[in-house]
Every structure is written in C-alpha cells, then in structure tokens.
Design brief:
The protein is of the alpha/beta class. The chain has one domain: 4-Layer Sandwich (Metallo-beta-lactamase, Chain A), CATH 3.60.15. It is 35% helix and 23% strand. It has nine helices and 14 strands. Strands 1-2-3-4-5-6 form a six-stranded mixed beta sheet, covered by helices on one side. It has a six-stranded mixed beta sheet with strand order 7-8-9-10-13-14. Strands 11-12 form a two-stranded antiparallel sheet. A hairpin with a 2-residue loop joins strand 11 and strand 12. Helix 5 runs antiparallel to helix 6. The radius of gyration is 18 Å and the shape is globular. Bound molecules: zinc ion (ZN) and fe (iii) ion. The site of fe (iii) ion has 6 residues, from helix 2.
Length: 269
C-alpha cells in the first residue's frame, strides 16, 4: 500500500507524507517545519524518512529541511535550477525527470508562476499531484515571480491529469478561495455543494484537501480561463471590483486568467 497523509503545519500549510508500507519507505513533500512532521513519522512510520521533496523555495515549504535531514539522514530533492534557494539540497531535478522510490515513482513537473522555479510531483501509484502553491482547491497561488502566461500553462498541465487525481496542495485555503470563486461564479451548483462540504469539514477541524482534479475542473475559476462562456459571464463581476476584461480578450485564456488573478489579489470579501 502507498498512502498519502496530510500533516498540518505552521498557520495553514500542509506537508504531505507518502509512505510505502511494503518497502517501508517514507517521503515528505514541503516540510515547512520539522516538529509536527517528525512526530507523525516517529509515531506512524517507524521513525524513518528517506526523502524530502521541495516544490519551491518559500520558507513555509522548506523551513524543516535541515532539521529533518539532520534527524533522519534524509536526502533533499528539488529543482536544480533553483538550487541556491533550497536549503540543504542534495540532488537537483530537471523537468520531466523521475524519482523511483520503492514501488512509487514521482515525475517532476514544470509548475512555474508562483515562483520562477516552482515544480510539482506526480506520484503514479497513489495518483497524487503535489503542486505546492501552484494550484489550490478553488484557487491558485499568487504570481510572485512568474507571468500569467507561465501560470496558465501550469494550470493546463495540472488540469490534464486524470479525473481521479488527488490535488495535494500546500495550503488550507479552500474556504477563503471559495468566497472569491462564488463571487465570480455565483450560479455554479457544483461549487455551492463543494462550499457546503468545505464548511462542514472546517467546522470539524478536518482538511478540505486533497480534492480531485475532476471537481477542480468544474469549480476552480482559475482552471476555466479558456471557457469562453465562463469568461463572458464573469465580466460584470470582475468590473464590480475594478478589473476590466475587454471583449477582445474574452477568447484569450492568458488574458482571462490574468484578470482573474488580478481580481483575486484585490478582492475583499
Ligand atoms: Zn509559496
Ligand atoms: Fe506557501
């Protein structure tokens, strides 16, 4: 069995543990701090951590690298082109490379947009998509270093994974993303149902992720920038918060995505 476990860390981050119970191997994606992760590893996974994976350099995703490496002798993997910003990196990936890990296999994906060196990992057996701050449930990461064109390419790349794929993202932002999603797309019934589920889960202190790619395709506005009808519908909503989407831009997914991202940045619920 390959299992995926979300470990809540810091304010609202998730680190993800991937465990192969037959080979007794454990990997962590984005350890923003060490202690809560070490507690789960020691309690449930035999006190061993072979692999640390980083999606990007931000400290809420890498802050636990060195302490976990010191404690477990783990090897740290991340994007080679961003090696200067990843603490303790042992091995730098190129895009498309695979990391074989017991029976599991992680494929390295280009997820630029949030940062210039953002990558993601697709794990074949567990059908997990570890996308850091590139894609969230009902949202996407802010564009700190990348362009809208790069981020839109990332959205397409992630959206194209199989319907059943689990979106293992870096933050519990679903409820606040949902407020914006509902503002731009108020008549979306699937979105309303998802938001009811999110409220229920949060009231019980439970994680709203991983979600599945199939639902994100229908209700995450940032995955719908190439849907012309959707683009037309959101024009008056974006205008309400001062973001203009020109008629000539409605069939340009990058322009629609950029307008949505700008709108989310200024949106006040
Ligand atoms: Zn980040
Ligand atoms: Fe983050």
């Amino acid at each position: 069995m390959i299992t995926i476990t979300a470990v809540p860390i810091l304010e609202d981050n998730y680190a993800w543990l991937v465990h192969d119970s037959v080979k007794r191997l454990t990997a962590v994606v984005d350890p923003g701090e060490a202690e809560p992760i070490a507690a789960v590893i020691d309690r449930d996974f035999g006190g061993r951590l072979e692999v640390i994976l980083n999606t990007h350099h931000h400290s809420d995703h890498t802050g636990g690298n060195l302490a976990l490496k010191a404690r477990y002798g783990s090897k740290i993997f991340g994007f080679g082109a961003d090696s200067a910003r990843l603490p303790g990196l042992d091995y730098g990936f190129v895009i498309g490379e695979r990391l074989y890990f017991g029976r599991e296999e992680f494929t390295v994906l280009d997820c630029r947009g949030h940062t210039s060196g953002h990558i993601g990992f697709y794990s074949r057996l567990s059908e997990g998509l570890f996308c850091g701050d590139a894609l969230f449930s009902l949202g996407c990461g802010r564009l700190f270093e990348g362009t809208a064109a790069e981020a839109w390419q990332t959205m397409i790349r992630l959206r194209d994974y199989a319907a059943i794929t689990r979106v293992c993202c870096g933050h519990e932002y679903t409820a606040s993303n949902g407020v914006f999603a509902q503002f731009v797309d108020p008549d979306n019934k699937a979105l309303r149902l998802r938001l009811a589920e999110v409220s229920r889960l949060r009231a019980q202190g439970l994680a709203t992720v991983p979600s599945r790619i199939i639902e994100e395709r229908q209700i995450n506005p940032f995955l719908r920038a190439d849907d012309g009808d959707f683009a037309r519908r959101i024009v008056p909503r974006l205008a309400q918060i001062g973001v203009e989407l020109l008629p000539s831009d409605l069939d340009d997914p990058v322009a629609v995505f950029a307008a949505l991202r700008r709108a989310k940045d200024v949106f006040k619920p």
